[in-house]
Amino acid sequence: MSRETRDILEGLAKANPVSNEDLLDSALEQEERLLFERIRARRAETHAGVLRRRPTRMIAWGAAAVVVLLILIFVPLLILDGRSAQNTAANQQTSTRSTQTPDTHTPLTASAGSGAPQTVTRNVALAGIIRLARDLELAHPSAAAGASTSGNLIIEALAMNVLLPAEGPDYKLSGVITRAQYALWLWRAFGSHLSAKTSFEFKDIGSLTKEEQQAIKGLAAAGVLEDTGSEFNGNAALGPTAEQVLLERARQSIQVRR
Question: Whole-angstrom Cα distance, residue 248 to residue 190?
Fold first, then answer.
């Protein structure tokens, strides 16, 4: 019997003396009541602790869900950004490898321009010459009127003697055309139709072929090439601005002679 029970018994005996049997029953009843109160109090404490822990667990689970959601959203985005950066770098490297010497020579260009340097391929240059010949009704009558493919361009250029059979069969139309090559093509296409205006020579054309030198001199005499006191720089790549300037000057020279 616990000390508390003994204290209860002594108190009951002093307050209301009864038989030992009744006293024992009363003590046991008091002890059961105390035990029951303790159990109920402990259960209440346990329940309160569970309630206090539930919000913490809910917050923890919520935070974990947010982290997972962020991972699912941002990881694919990071992967896509990485692939995009790799593609951009590859494109830049390809562009750098394909860049040719810019055409900044004054006699062929109206202005240097502020954009990125550009070049003209041989097929584009050939198509422009043939287009001008058609506009001026100078194209060969046997040439295909709708020539647009490389094969048709070659056929028409051969008919106009812009290209020569000995230079083929690979005319490398996908390659970049130089200033000297373009001058030669212009002269072959329109030399006999140009009107002479003046005479001057570039000092740096001695290393070019004799036919290229003759073409440059003839275009200069017709005013298609202008004398600015600078070098011709025939091995540099032709730019699109220079191409348009030359074609327009050739048109004007031919129209004057007519």
Answer: 12
Q: Are residues 110 and 238 in the same domain?
A: yes
What is the rounded CA–CA span in Å between residue 186 and residue 224?
10
Give the domain extent around 74: 3-98
Tell me: do 84 and 112 sit in the same domain.
no
> Helix 179-190 to helix 210-221 angle, to the nearest 10 degrees?
70
Dist CA 258 CA 192 (whole Å):
12
Q: What is the DSSP letter of 163?
A: S
Helix, strand and coil content of the chain, in percent to the nearest 5, comes to: 65, 0, 35
- pLDDT of the chain along its 258 residues, tens only? 567 666 666 665 665 555 555 656 666 676 677 777 777 777 777 766 655 555 666 777 777 887 777 787 766 666 766 666 666 655 555 444 434 444 434 344 333 344 545 899 999 999 999 999 999 988 766 554 554 567 788 998 999 999 999 998 889 999 999 999 999 999 999 999 998 877 778 888 999 999 999 999 999 999 999 877 778 889 999 999 999 999 999 999 998 876
- The dihedral of CA 155, 156, 157, 159: what is its sign? positive
- Distance, CA of 208 to CA of 164 (rounded, Å): 18
Beta bridge partners of 176: 121
Q: How far apart are CA 145 and CA 159, in angstroms?
A: 13
Q: Count the domains in the chain.
A: 2
Show which of 78, 98, 118 is a domain's final residue: 98
Long-range residue pairs from 42-49, CB within 8 A, at least 24 positions apart, any chain? none
